[in-house]
Amino acid sequence: MLKNVFVSSALTISTLSIGINSLVLKPSRAVELTDGRRAFESSLNLTRAAANFNSRNNSAARYQFTIEVPEDAGEALKSVKITQKENSDTVIFKTDKSKASLGSSLSGDNIPLAAVGGESQPGETTVVFDTPVEPGNTVTISVKPKQNPSVDGVYLFGIAAYPNGENSPGLYLGSGRIHITE
Q1: What Pfam family is a match for this entry (predicted)?
Q2: pTM of the predicted structure, to 2 decimals
């Protein structure tokens, strides 16, 4: 009787292992909406927001935003929109100074940008990758303000990610915080 329980348990574990491996090996697919647009299957993660210089009015400052595109995202990351939340001072981005690289810092492989700016307004910019960032990768985007705000405080930047495809809905990832000091 005990021997049969062991064999039965071994078969169950073996079956579960095969089932799990089958799930892991299947490629993930993006969500297709009823109107044909595509959306991410799983949320991307805003993991870091930082400024290299935090002092007021500093014209050498760069803001970096790091985003993880998980394996199960189902769709590649095509563009990112950065929008400053209302505050006492508004940042104006120098779109020609934006860059991106693979990894959690700018020391990774450079990612060419197809466009930067779009229909930008003060406090807003959109970065479009020439080649979309595939699931399983991390990307760091660096944007350059004309200068840091003249008023110290915490500045919030809403980050929205967009998958490959026409008029695809964005996915709001949250707000990155940049602290400006005296």
Answers
A1: DUF2808
A2: 0.80
